[in-house]
Design brief:
single chain, 359 residues, alpha/beta, Spore Coat Polysaccharide Biosynthesis Protein SpsA, Chain A, 2 domains, 10-stranded mixed beta sheet
């Protein structure tokens, strides 16, 4: 295996001593069939990287695999064993143990591209040893959808300046359906800890909270136009499978409400920057659309009542937010009256799904 020769374990002009450059948490639950590919793709980062394999109460060989890698690479890999608490709990554990300057989450069924990985480490190292500060690095991710030859790449070159540190004031317009997701980001570790990020346990879809709540604390960003993260879609029972999402819609609604509460409660902090405020609102808008369309797709009377209750929750929490969400183009499309209106909503959703390649 080729190991990257650089190291961040040096004295630099910021006074960082003996610190890993990047901590990567790998939340793992019953992942023995595929986790090795993920881990091997990260090991090429060498001593610059701290790999935290979080065994989230697995009942298969996941824990033993994690221990095996720790034994083989004791200066790089750390195996963390905990009771099952779900994806968010595993991310929390990884963050608690992280000692690197920057922090990344890579799910155990995903992997990273080696050449892009090296470029990202170069950028992080240059910034860590220079005079600039960086809160969030953004790169592209690729939808590795099972059975498809052509893979959709989520890139941000039209919206973000490239190859330099910039602020929210320089961010341009994001297309509908295009957002900075967990797969896209590397955060400064201390920022995540200082902003008090704590993901809910036993809840799916918390990756949206992970990338949403730190944003008001992010001042400096960097976009590297490389296809770094490979996001695998197609495993049976995967959480982003549409039928699975419908069966877990209560957890989607829970995450949706947490994001509503957070943006409303941090209104004053977010209001100081128009572009940040607009971006966070549009992110919340798409999450609310996803919740609504899943409930429409369910089609039961109970599900339609839950949809009405979600919109009522937003209205009671923040009338201004509700008016903007409800009477925007997407909000209107999710609230067309009757069976005919719901059919139109579903058809619009299908078109978006084919174009953007999600679930």
């Amino acid at each position: 295996m080729q190991m990257f020769s650089g190291t961040a374990n040096r004295q630099c002009n910021k006074g960082i001593v003996n610190m890993k450059l990047l901590s990567v948490a790998i939340p793992s639950y019953n992942s023995e069939a595929y986790m090795r590919k993920c881990i091997e793709s990260l090991l090429v980062g060498g001593e610059d990287v701290e790999i935290l394999i979080v065994d989230d109460g697995s009942t298969d060989g996941t824990g033993a695999i994690a221990d095996g890698y720790e034994a083989r690479y004791p200066s790089i890999v750390k195996a963390i064993h905990k009771e099952n608490g779900g994806h968010g709990s595993a991310v929390n554990a990884g963050l608690e143990h992280a000692t690197g300057l920057y922090f990344k989450v890579v799910d155990s069924d995903d992997w990273v591209k080696e050449s892009a990985y090296f470029k990202i480490l170069d950028v992080l190292r240059d910034i860590a040893t220079g005079d600039s500060s960086l809160d969030m690095l953004i790169s592209n991710f690729v939808y590795e959808k099972e059975g498809e030859r052509k893979h959709k790449v989520m890139k941000y070159r039209h919206a973000l300046p490239q190859d330099r540190v910039f602020t929210w004031n320089e961010v341009k317009h994001f297309h509908k359906g295009q957002y900075i997701l967990m797969h896209s980001v590397i955060f400064r570790t201390r920022l995540l800890k200082e902003c008090g990020l704590k993901l809910p346990e036993h809840t799916f879809y918390v990756d949206n909270i992970f990338v949403f709540e730190p944003l008001p604390f992010v001042k400096n960003l960097y976009y590297l136009d490389v296809n770094f993260y490979r996001y695998y879609i197609g495993r049976e029972g995967q959480s982003v499978n549409e039928q699975v999402m419908i069966s877990r819609v209560d957890q989607q609604i829970k995450v949706n409400k947490i994001m509503v509460d957070y943006l409303s409660d941090h209104k004053a902090k977010v209001a100081s920057n128009r572009k940040l405020r607009n971006y966070m609102f549009r992110y919340l808008e798409i999450i609310t659309v996803i919740s609504s369309i899943l409930l429409i797709r369910d089609g039961t009377e109970e599900a339609l009542e839950k949809k009405q209750e979600l919109w009522q929750y937003i209205k009671q929490k923040d009338m201004g937010m509700y008016m903007r969400l409800r009477y925007g183009v997407l909000g209107n499309s999710m609230n067309l009256p009757g069976k005919g209106g719901r059919k139109i909503s579903v058809e619009g959703y299908k078109i978006c799904r084919r174009f953007y390649k999600f679930n």
